[in-house]
From TrEMBL:
Catalytic activity: (R)-pantothenate + ATP = (R)-4'-phosphopantothenate + ADP + H(+)
Organism whose genome encodes this protein: Mycoplasmopsis gallinacea
Protein name from the UniProt record: Type III pantothenate kinase
Repeat keyword on record: no
Localization: Cytoplasm
Any one GO molecular-function label of the UniProt entry: ATP binding
Binding partners and assembly: Homodimer.
Amino acid sequence: MKRKTIVYDVGNTYVKCGLFENKKLVKVEQIHTESFNDDSVAHLNSVFEILPEDNVVYGSVVKRVSKILKDFYSADFKNLFEINSSLKFNFSFGKIDKQKVGTDILGASYYACKEQKDSMIFLFGTAAVAIKIKDYKIKGVSIAPGIGFAFNKLLEQADGLKHLQFSYTKQIAMGTNTIDALKMGFNMLRRGFIQAHLDILKTSEKENYTRPYVSGGDIKNICKTKHKVVDNIVLKGYYQIFEDNFNL
């Protein structure tokens, strides 16, 4: 029987766990990072029916969860692999200290460089992240507060919004009520984050990036003709790094 491979993408808000079969992501489960513990790992193992001989891969930006995964799997599982900067990548780091690059950036960049040498990548999670890749080299990164994260804080802090039921659906006109106004603001912040980066690269560096990659929890209803929408780009990148480095 062929080994299964599960991949953990440990972010600040969610721990995602994906099952890969025949090099394709076939199932994803996620648990809030704050509540993630040993029972969470046992639950995911049960859901995916993972055996000690299967492959377990993880990339993490949260040390507490890294320790949980290491402690749980080190005892009985033979094939535990960590995504970190010591591995081989299909891109270079230029002036960037690779020891300080987040694993999520490593995963997303690896995925993009599998397809093309020049890319702009936008990740929308707890943080909004922009990554510029030129000639298979990470040229720079931009990080801002995540849009969904910022809006949730607004709903928590603003007295008039605390009990508002709000979902981030598409809105292309100025709102005439609070809900639609928030939807418009959300979409404009996301659009502005992307467009501002593309505009400054076009004007100051004469570089034109068409159809940038976008991924993350805050990309619902984004235009797929203008963007390369890749669900779980970090998970998929981690799997590709694992496959190319360990050739299993």
